[in-house]
Amino acid sequence: MTSLEEGEVYQHLGTPTGVRVRQTPEDTIVEILRYAAQTDSSLLAPWQKINALNTFLIPRISFVLRGSSVAKVHLNKADSTIRQLVRKWLDLPQRASTDIFYNCHRQGGANVPRMGDLCDVAVITHTFRLLTCPDPTVRSIVEEAIRDVVRKCTSRAPSEQDIDTYLSGFLEAEFGRKGGDLSSLWSRTCNASRRLGKRISCRWKWCKEHQELGILVRCIKTLEHTIVTPTARTLLERTLKDAIRCHYAEKLKRKPDQDKVFQVSSKWDASNHFLSGGKFTRFADWWFIHRARLNCIPLNGAICHGNRDKRCRKCGYAKETLPHVLCGCKHHSGVWCHRHNAIQNRLVKAIPPSLGKITINSAIPGTDSQLRPNIIVTNAEKKRVLMVDITVPFENRSPAFHEARAWKVLTYTPLANTLRAQGYKVQIHAVVVGALSAWDPHNEPVLRTCGVGRRYARLMRQLMVSDTIRWSRDIYTEHITGHHQYQVE
Ligand SMILES: [Zn+2]
Q: What is the mean pLDDT of residues 265-277?
């Protein structure tokens, strides 16, 4: 073994180790940023760049964070550089919310973790693992050490509640006297718990009933607080990371003008399938969709300052906004029809012939109604009629989808009643896909009724979503540039 002077270091499992040394792995951080810059200048597609960052670069720091005492300043600087890159890869302007970067792919985010958050999670997880170590010797040494620290802080023999109050980073009464402490794992745990506690309301908790220490975290599935117990100690890291992602999603949902699409598009993972692999997505669609979803598209009506003309450049409507261009401007009604038909054709192909005879956009014989449902499946033997209509509303939060669906059902109810009087069993359904590709979860029962197989349904949702993005992008670009964007077969 080499003997070290004070301040000298040797690398132990990637961590600078020694007496009074700065353990921040600056070399690792510099290297990550260098590779990130190289990734940026490479010829990879933007979704591949994000994937490379998440798979190869950020995990390098996660390992070092487990064993080192790391200064947050360096991590925050690195986070800021990475944020700039991700912003560029998603083609978002400065005013777009950064919360989308930290959300998972399923909810429409870039799934990039913040190094600062990873550091806090690593510290808490490490302390919890030490305190709940299955080896009794290790556990007793650690328990004695923490008791010692809390005893010094409170000047009395610490109770179990004192320990959980201390570790949670509360600063009330005698617990606020920690100033001047040398930085140790314990003080770092307090700070990390306090920081995370403010955001995801997690805290340490002593369970009297089972006589064990646990951590209270909000579960993302039930949205209720659950305790991670020593028996579930391996789940702590994942639970904390999930809670942090959930925090960013909630934050985005509170944004006054950028939340509308996200509230609907985050409900079903098919809406965001292209984020992880860019499947069925053109580059032009990628550069359009993120801006559009965060309402950062430069249209006349979106500019708040100044006295600029806010009218639609095509039809003169009072306010040129994205909902108007994609779903309201009559100038583009021809293209809406293509977008609508693209979704309709996918569904028609997937309905098995055994269900009945399929007719499209035609009046039902034997009735005097002029209504023409998009898809009608008639089974004359079983006296059954299934009507399905396709609609593409703008994602103006969830009520817009509910209204669109209810409107379709209401429209076809008189026709259904006529058929019921003739002895038919009639079902009316709607398939709702948002103009910015949000898949309505209420479409699921409709697909089952239409007899779409589970395996194909997975692909069909993705295709419908990508079709919608493609057509919406073409509508928008044609609106702005005046150049014809598509060819019809
Ligand atoms: Zn217009």
A: 93
Look at residue 181 and tell me whether its pLDDT is greater than 60.
Answer: no
Residue 312 Cα, ligand 1 centroid: separation in angstroms? 5
Q: Is residue 231 part of a domain?
A: yes
Shared-domain flag, residues 88 and 161: no
Identify whether residues 95 and 145 lie together within a single domain.
no
Q: Are residues 221 and 339 in the same domain?
A: no
Last residue of a domain, one of 109, 131, 164: 109
Tell me, in angstroms, the distance from the centre of ligand 1 to residue 476's CA: 11
- CB neighbour list of residue 336: distance below 8 Å, 6 or more residues apart: 327, 392, 475
DSSP code string of 331-350: GGHHHHHHHHHHHHHHHHHH
Domain that holds residue 38: 10-109
- Condensed to tens digits (0 to 9), the pLDDT of residues 245-264 reads 999 999 999 988 888 999 99
Confidence of residue 179 (pLDDT cuts 50, 70, 90): low
**Nearest CA to 383 among 347, 413, 424, 419?**
424
Ligand 1 geometric centre to CA of 472 (Å): 14
CA distance linking residue 483 with residue 115, whole number of Å: 44
> Which tokens is 28 given?
């690792």
Single out the residue of 292, 283, 289 nearest to residue 49, CA to CA.
Answer: 283
